[in-house]
Amino acid sequence: MSVTTLSPTVLIQRQPNWLVRLFDYKPFLVVMCLAPAIGLLAVFLTYPLGLGIWLAFTDTTIGRKGEFIGLENFQYLLTDSLWWNAVFYSVVYTGIATFGKFALGFWLALLLNNHFPFKSLLRAIILLPWIVPTVLSALAFWWIYDPQFSIISYLLVDVLHWRTTNIDFLGSPWPARFSLIAANIWRGIPFVAISLLAGLQTISPSLYEAAMLDGASAWQRFRYITFPMMMPILAIVMTFSIIFTFTDFQLVYAITRGGPGNSTHLLATLAFQRGIAGGELGEGAAIAVSMIPFLVFATLFSYFGLARRKWQQGEAND
Amino acid sequence: MTDTAAQPTAVADAKAAPDTMAWDSGLRRLMMIYLPLGCFVLILLFPFYWMAITSFKPNAELMNYKEHNPFWITSPTLAHIKHLLFDTAYPRWLWTTMLVAIGATTLSLIASTLAAYAIERLRFRGSPYVGLGIYMAYLVPPSILFIPLATVVVQFGLFDSPLALILVYPTFLVPFCTWLLIGYFKSIPYELEECALVDGATRLQILRRITLPLAVPGLISAGIFSFTLSWNEFIYALAFIQSGANKTVPVAILTELVTGDVYQWGALMAGSLLGSLPVAIFYSLFVDYYVSSLTGAVKE
Fold first, then answer.
1. What is the mean pLDDT of chain B?
2. Rounded distance, CA B254 to CA B271, Å?
């Protein structure tokens, strides 16, 4: 309707105005439309990415322009036990947290895929941990993990009488590591569950009906219908999850700042500590760059997940 | 786990009465669905409950579990919130955060609408590759970028200025929004635009009068998502802002309120609660858009 009312004015405007004609010239328009997005990304993403890789090969510090020193930063990192600790904990953190998130998230998605009252309300509530600023929920976890007034300790000691002493969540390395992983899983479950739920809803019920007619058990239906049909979406969500868990910063920085005794440093927090807080920009950049191979690996993981699905279905990607 | 447990009986029931599904029996439904769901909801919501209840507890109750039940408040107080609002720069932090979030959202929405329109509707040669390139940008995590970006921000003379954040946040907002909007533009029939072209409308008029009005749900989704992501952003705000007054809420609470060895848990939790409220309210108003954009983005 608006189209018909608009056409006469267009014709009047069109003849004299060269500007309008310029904006109707397709190549010009394409450039103009892409310019803001590409410009922003080039200046604040591509350029810094390149600069970061360059910085990793220099000895730049805050306030002093560095010189090219080749692989020295990386050679140093290889002898640095703190860096190895951070790599170790980053891998452990990503591995256990991803497994936990997907096991629990998939379970929650399967639960939510049933019919029950107040389903959409429940779905809305479940996303809350993901919506709220991570640092702020991390602070709540810090308080929950308090050595003296932890509510979990209170439950276990004074209510259930399972233990006699409070748990020292953040005071020693391994409990601190697992406490952080638990907080990360808590934060990650909603995203995984809601994404996977969307995938579950696209699976046609007729597949299940056919399988049930053939006498497939609940486990068989899950193993041979749900799981294969979920592979593509699982692969995408998992890549994202792995990338953002491996490069996580906020949770660790908010709760332990890498302590106790540097045992909970992830690569990102170590890079921050050395690069920004310590002023060694070159070394910090080298630590950040050392994350890239792991990330490339994670992306390839998803690529092959998707490739496998194409091969299974024997058709081109939609 | 649930499924393996259900297996033997499920098969037996299916054999006994093929037309009633095994899952529908009441007790099993309770054990298999409602009980685990209840546990999930309890665990997912407990930290918020704890946050809220701590913000209104007087210090005496906060530190004494023996005489007061920690799960409830006997004499609620507004002291922590009052302290936060009147003795700290909290209102200022809220204001800065709001400004940064709105600025970054506006900027990214404009940039990504134009980009998505060019990629999806103008269809020049190589447009799929530009789309892929923008998508790849989403896979570059901020943890890799913040050190070189800090030097870039210093070069531009923007260090310690909220403007730096407004300019930098689009690096993770634009890829996401573009991607989401490409999906929305795809769902709008191309014939509508062809009609307008035949009637002599210019491309920009088509974008403004036809495509954009039809893509409003997509724009809202992208907007609220961007707002939430900018509100929650932490690492850039931590690295680029130095002075207390210019900090955003998440950074300020962690760096300005955590002082000394005795933590002011009441004030900290009140700060977290107030800092979470704007996004939580925003979220409750637009739940459906959130869910659809989250799931839509994944499915694309």
1. 83
2. 10
Q: Give the gap in angstroms from C-alpha B142 to the nearest C-alpha of chain A.
A: 8
Count of other CB atoms within 10 angstroms of residue A308: 14
Q: Point out the residue among B115, B149, B272 whose CB comes nearest to the CB of A139.
A: B272
Instruction: Give me the pLDDT at residue B60, please.
Output: 79
The C-alpha atoms of residue A266 and residue A256 are separated, in whole angstroms, by 11
Instruction: Note whether A20 contacts B: Cβ–Cβ < 8 A.
Output: yes
Residue A304's CB is within 10 A of a number of other CB atoms, namely 11
**C-alpha atoms less than 13 angstroms from C-alpha of A101 in its C-beta half-sphere:** 31
Q: Which residues, numbered 105 to 124 in chain A, qualify as contacts with chain B under a Cβ-Cβ cut-off of 8 Å?
A: 107-108, 110-112, 114, 116, 120, 122-124
Give pLDDT, residue A190. Answer: 92
Q: How close, in Å, is residue B52 to chain A by CA atoms?
A: 10
Hey, is the C-beta of B142 within 8 angstroms of any chain A C-beta?
A: yes
- State the nearest Cα–Cα gap between B215 and chain A, in angstroms: 16
CA distance B115 to B35: 47
Answer yes or no: do B152 and A44 touch at CB < 8 A: yes
Look at residue A3 in the predicted model and tell me its pLDDT. Answer: 47
- For residue A253, what pLDDT is reported? 92
Tens of pLDDT along A25-68? 788 888 888 889 999 999 999 999 999 999 999 988 887 888 88
Residue B4's pLDDT band, with cuts at 50, 70 and 90, is very low
Burial call A144-172: b when 16+ CB within 10 Å, e when fewer: bbbeebbbebbebbeeeeeeeebbbbbee
Mean pLDDT of B141-147: 91
CB contact under 8 A, A45 and B171: yes
Decide if A37 touches B, using CB distance below 8 A: yes
In total, chain B counts a number of residues equal to 300
Reported pTM: 0.85
The answer to whether the complex's ipTM is over 0.90 is: no
For A122-170, what is each residue's pLDDT tens digit? 888 888 898 899 999 999 999 999 888 888 888 888 888 888 888 888 8
What residue spans of A163-256 are helical by DSSP H?
173-201, 205-213, 218-221, 227-246, 250-255
C-beta atoms of A23 and B202 within 8 A: yes
Instruction: Tell whether B163 is within 8 A of chain A (Cβ).
Output: no
- Orientation angle between helical segments B287-299 and A173-201, nearest 10 degrees: 90
Q: Which residue of A has its CA nearest to B153?
A: A44
